[in-house]
Each structure stands twice: as C-alpha cells, then as structure tokens.
Amino acid sequence: DVKVTQSSRYLVKRTGEKVFLECVQDMDHENMFWYRQDPGLGLRLIYFSYDVKMKEKGDIPEGYSVSREKKERFSLILESASTNQTSMYLCASSFAPGTGSYEQYFGPGTRLTVT
Amino acid sequence: AQKITQTQPGMFVQEKEAVTLDCTYDTSDQSYGLFWYKQPSSGEMIFLIYQGSYDEQNATEGRYSLNFQKARKSANLVISASQLGDSAMYFCAMRGRTSGTYKYIFGTGTRLKVLA
Questions:
Q1: Cβ of B103 and A88 within 8 Å?
Q2: Shortest CA distance to A92 belongs to which of A54, A43, A52?
Q3: 3-state secondary structure (DSSP) of residue A53
Q4: Is residue A110 within 8 Å of residue A9, measured between CB atoms?
Q5: DSSP letter (8 states) at residue A104
Q6: Among B93, B74, B98, B96, which Cα is nearest to B34's?
Q7: Among A3, A11, A50, A58, which one is least packed by beta carbons within 10 Å?
Q8: Nearest residue on chain B to A42, judged by CA atoms?
Q9: Do A103 and B47 count as a contact with CB atoms less than 8 A apart?
Q10: Smallest CA–CA separation between B45 and chain A, in Å?
C-alpha cells in the first residue's frame, strides 16, 4: 500500500512565523506535489517536484517555498506566515518507474491556522 | 489553458440507486489523463478511477465507471447501487501538459449525499 504521511494533522501558528510542513512517501514515487484546499476552490497546486532537488512553481507559489533533498521527502515552507495562508494543505505523490500509472496518492492533510 | 469544470456543487441520491457526477474538461493536448477522487469527511483523498485519452473503452472499477465522451470533452463518474458510505466530496482531475510540463488540475468538487 502506498503511504503518504504528513508531519501534522493540525497546526496553529502566529503571523510572521516560519512554518515547515513535511511530507514523506514510501513507494519510491518520483513526483511529489503540494496543494492547498479551500472551500469552493477545489485543490490548487502550490509547488511540485519531478525529481530530487528539482522544483517547479504551481499555480499559487507566492509566499511559499519547497525543498526536496531526498526522493521520499518534500517539504513546504511558509517563510512568513500570514492569515490568508490559513487552509488545508495536502501533499501527494505519483509515479513509480516501470508502473506507467500516474494517479496521485494523498496524505491525510494538515489543517493550518495562522492567527 | 487547461480547465476542469464540475457544475454540480451538491447532489442527493437515494440508497441503492445510481448517480452520475458531471465533469467537463478543456485541453488542446492530445495526450492526457482523467481521474476521479473521493474525499470523505475525514479529509483524505482517495483515488477511484482513471481514463486515458487514448483509451477506447470506458474505465470501470467495481461500482464506479467513467463515461468518457472525448468529442464532448466530458468524463462523468457513474456510481451504481449507491451506499451510505459513498457520501463524500468527489473531485475530477486531469493530468495534461502546460508549457511542456505535465501538471494536474482539479475541479471544484461535487458533494454527494446518499439518503437512506
């Protein structure tokens, strides 16, 4: 079974704090993604990575950065948290070499509140 | 630009009946993939079914089937014999190429409520 884990289910931070959200997958997936989910807006892609040390901006990268030093780990960083970054953050991974399958597997999500 | 549209914010269905959740997409690419995910109230996204743009047969997975109409750019999810546990949010998604890079985009979702 594919497993994607996220470091926290719930997080409360203050405005201006630096926030780290960690994601780990155990299925040797090459691709990893960070989304935020807000009511009525669906999932919006923040950043993604198709390889170690590689990153690409998604649709809403402003205010975020990412790090992928190891294949299984993809971190999302909020450099200076703001109240408009209060949201549900979902990590996903996809594609193990040789499978030809591209469905994404998601972690349980981190509900971040910035006060 | 690529886009996924789900026009039904919410739907009700009686237990044991079939229900269709609508999804239309827009892309100029010839090679793309379409996915449906379920998100129960617990929050975790669960992959349900996949359809490739070159697949001639509609995909099926148990009680789930994908009604793929390429010319109309629609990829509706059909759930047969609905169960109470099917109550959830359902998202349609597409993997396609934008500026040379494959990306996934999601619709805004349909909330399904199954009635006993």
A1: no
A2: A43
A3: coil
A4: yes
A5: -
A6: B93
A7: A3
A8: B108
A9: yes
A10: 6
Can you tell me which residue has the tokens 């996924």?
B4
| Chain B interface, Cβ < 8 Å to A | 33, 35, 37, 42-47, 50, 91, 93, 95, 101, 103-109
Sign of CA dihedral B100, B28, B2, A27: negative
Kindly determine whether residue B45 and residue A58, on different chains, have CB atoms separated by under 8 Å.
Answer: no
| CA-to-CA separations, B10 to A111, B38, B80, in angstroms, rounded | 23, 14, 18
Render pLDDT for A45-92 as a digit per residue (tens, 0 to 9).
999 999 898 899 999 999 999 999 999 999 999 999 999 999 999 999
Burial of B27: CB neighbours in 10 Å, binned 0-12, 13-18, 19+:
buried
Q: Which two tokens stand for residue A58?
A: 């998604």
CA atoms of B15 and A21, how far apart (whole Å): 39
**What is the band of A101 on the pLDDT scale with cuts at 50, 70, 90?**
confident
Q: Does A42 touch chain B (CB under 8 A)?
A: yes
- Cα–Cα distance, B79 to A15 (Å, whole number): 44
- Cα atoms in the 13 Å half-sphere on the side-chain side of B94: 27
Indicate the helix (H) or strand (E) that contains A114. strand A110-114
